[in-house]
Write a structure and sequence with these properties.
This protein is mainly β and 354 residues long. The protein has a 4-stranded antiparallel sheet, with no helix packed on it. The chain has a 4-stranded antiparallel sheet with strand order 4-5-6-7, with no helix packed on it. It is globular, with a radius of gyration of 22 Å. The chain starts with 12 loop residues before the first strand and ends with a strand. 27% of the residues are buried.
Length: 354
């Protein structure tokens, strides 16, 4: 099962997110309106997981005991999966899709019902057969490569993992046997540090043969100095094509990348904790072809607000969390408007074709 084609990035994109009390909502960033609301079957949501083919979202509901599968094309809940064990209360804490989408890896916390008390047992990973609605195997832990955050390749045939030396390792999706490595540790020139991939692919992890990844690199002598930049990877031949180093790494969080333009949004500072009394947050827009700053602004937000999304065309930036509204800024980071919704916006915003 493959990810969508890179050509899909040229079409229309929507935001999908959970909204209080029990909805999954589709939001059009062109008009800043909610276009669809899907009512969940088992009450309030806890977490969401976008499937590898970007066609469904898996929503944990039912006090973290069930997973509802929402088909994004039809906007309906197509199946429900209850996790239960005699004598225990189960809580779903993590959910990962296996190659092919026919199995999930589900981590559950287990609370045993004693005669006079509850006791906490060791968490378990469950290998779950989606079509059969049954647990096939119980594991105390995952294989090391997956435990370290391995991700499926665009075509779904390999896991892309980081080995003990920081290199990108290619593992067979079924057997986890190594199929080669892409060297990121060896200095590309005298005095250069190792490349650490940042996890953000400007191709949205859709091209099985190529990736454009943001990276950081620490000076091997002056270890407090870290730079950032863009690296192009030839995934088919397992080699680095080019490295563009942009300068000192940006101290920030919540990087969001536009799907149609190489523009990224960053946020730093604020949250009411600065010693000099300046509670403003710093918003930045960067050109992700050269690392140059496109716009900068300082704004004061109410508590627990943060950068949550950038529009596909990079013409708007959205601030959210802790409320039922988006604060919207334009491409110059000038305040445009506030978009009020009819429920609190919670959790991650997924950008999906259509």
């Amino acid at each position: 099962m493959a990810a969508p084609s890179p050509a899909g990035l040229q079409g229309k994109q929507s935001f999908w997110f959970t909204m209080y009390p029990n909805f999954l909502a589709q939001f059009d960033p062109a008009t800043d309106t909610v276009t669809r609301k899907v009512e969940l079957k088992r009450g309030m949501f806890w977490s969401t997981h976008l499937t590898h083919d970007r066609r469904s979202i898996l929503v944990v509901t039912d006090q973290q005991q069930s997973v509802e599968v929402v088909d994004l094309a039809s906007g309906t809940v197509t199946s429900e999966h209850k996790f239960a064990e005699d004598g225990f209360i189960l809580r779903i804490r993590d959910l990962r899709e296996c190659p092919g989408g026919q199995h999930w890896l589900v981590r559950t916390e287990r609370v045993k019902k004693e005669v006079d008390r509850y006791s906490f047992e060791a968490a378990q990973w469950l290998l779950y057969d989606v079509a059969g609605h049954k647990v096939e195997r119980k594991l105390s832990r995952l294989p090391d490569a997956i435990e370290r955050g391995a991700q499926l390749s665009a075509d779904g045939t390999q896991w892309l993992a980081t080995d003990d030396d920081g290199n990108l390792e290619f593992l067979d999706a079924r057997t986890l046997k190594s199929q080669g490595k892409l060297d990121l540790r060896t200095p590309r020139h005298f005095g250069a540090g190792a490349i650490r991939l940042g996890g953000t692919d400007l191709l949205d992890r859709r091209d099985p043969a190529r990736a454009l990844m943001l990276f950081t690199s620490t000076d091997p002598v002056e270890t407090r100095r870290t730079s950032w930049g863009l690296v192009e990877l030839d995934l088919a031949n397992k080699k680095i094509v080019r490295v563009d180093e942009w300068g000192p790494n940006q101290s920030s969080w919540g990087l969001r990348v536009a799907t149609k333009k190489p523009v990224g949004a960053l946020m730093s500072g604020g949250f009411g904790g600065d010693r000099d009394g300046d509670n403003r947050a710093r918003l930045l827009l960067f050109d992700l072809t050269n690392g140059k700053k496109l716009a900068e602004a300082f704004e004061e937000f109410r508590p627990r607000r943060s950068l949550v999304a950038i529009s596909p065309d990079a013409d708007k930036v959205y601030m959210g969390v802790a409320g039922s509204d988006f604060e919207v800024f334009d491409a110059q980071l000038k305040r445009l408007k506030t978009v009020e919704l009819d429920g609190e916006i919670v959790g991650r915003i997924h950008v999906v074709d259509g």
